[in-house]
Model the fold of this input.
Amino acid sequence: MTGAGRYNTPKAQAQRGGKYHAMTIADTIADLSNFSQSQVVRKTVTTSSGGIVAAQHRVAAMAGAAALAEGGNAVDAAIATSFSIGVAEPWMSGPGGGGAMIVYKADTNETSVIDFNMRSPAGLDPADFPLTDGVADDLFPWTRVEGDRNLKGPTAIAVPGLVDGMATAHAKHATMPWMDLLQPAIALAEAGPRIDWYTSLMTVACVADLAADPEASRVFLRDGNAPTAPWTAVVGERLDLSAMAGTLKRLAEAGARDFYEGDLARSIAGDVQRLGGSLRLGDLQNYHAREMAPLIYNHGDAELRLSPELTAGSTMAAALNGVDLESYAQTPGEPVAADFRQLAWAIRDAQDARLGTMGDVDGARAQTCTTSFSVVDKWGNMVVVTQTLLSIFGSKVMLPASGILMNNGILWFDPEPGRPNSLAPDKRCLTNICPVIGVDGGRMFSLGASGGRKIMSAVLQLTSFLTDFGMSLEDAFHQGRIDCSLADQVIVDEALPEDVAAAIAQDCPAVRTKRTVYPYAFACPSGVLRDGDQNQGITEISSPWGDAVSEEQVGGQLHERRPG
Done:
């Protein structure tokens, strides 16, 4: 007997359980993931005695590393990276957004935090955001606002702080001229970022909202659709960011405060006002980034320097404080199921406290629009920056005169009145960013991530992998993680043993999922580490654009391009 018939004999059916076995196979196949189970995704740690920039876009990392190669320090590199990454992936961050950075100066052993997060405009009226039935369909499950006015469009725009944050860092800690540090971003904006499959992926989910804004539609869409790279072409067309190039040139020549007090400020405020937003020139004039001391938390033998106040730094400290170090990390090398159970409980408990006292709420099911990068230079100075527009493409509004894609920071506020984080005028935004610089024996590291409420969970675990388990930077970034950002379940990397999900499920539902390019179920971190005089850097292994670049890697190219 040949063919299918031999598999349907009574003997064969008995051996495999008959028709019931066939039904089980069918049901199992219907529930299977589409993704390969044999594919291995890895990245190599960049190692150097010189400086390294680890960023979510390789081109931006190259810009920062070029500043290091020219003799700049970690802050110089961070500024060059910040403006360049705002051009390379404009839907993630840029001059229209905000964020925070931590700066460590090796010569004085001092660490400071520069807060350049967004604020609500002084003229904002909460009555302009009437509530309606349902729940907002984005990062936070607030009560829905009529017309999603807090989520998209000009009414969602908060006062941006990134430019003044970088200017504050430059004035206090940089060594290279401001104008020089903006040149890579200007060149990239003039050429336009290349359109590849990842550009298409980032754009396709926002086509309808981008189409509603004439300038955003012109720049990011093609005949009303997401741009696509040719199927067989290596290089596709480019985005037209020529208006942003002009704005960056103006910033380079006139200085950063022109963005807040000069011609650029008047252009930005005028465009937002004409479009119907509440941002005015006075909001920009009154904006100033703040430099402050970090939150210091001692975790075992390690000292962690975290961002304070309305970030997730205090929540990370609270979560680590909930870990019982007498029973945690007792198996050398890597965490086991009991360790992940402890982490899940501690993170969820700390987040519950955050929600009740700081006003943030759970959700984070939609795409976030954030980027994070870390820098270490040859002298041992370190910088970690997290900057954001909040949602992907921010407010979906691109200002026609300046070419700036604006944030939707108003979404950070709860539209319901009478709550800790309720929407109000001239109020600082509560954010999920969680940069950290840590010292553990002879090693020092900086970590940050993008991913909304996924950020703190990822940064905490990476910190624990490095400190509690003594992992290398490479092993820490390849180690499977969990995510505790959702109220109703914990997400577990499929790469972890099955007993991890079983252990966590004793306390709350656990769902296993694959670590993929889209969606990022476990946040998207980057980090650098210094051990003695040796530096290392790496980014999220599944990120197709992220990379760590050393100054030696760009130094040779710069030498080759110089005339003579």
Observations:
- Confidence is low (pLDDT under 50) at residues 1-18, 359-366.
- DSSP finds 19 helices and 19 strands in the chain.
- The first strand starts at residue 46 and ends at 48.
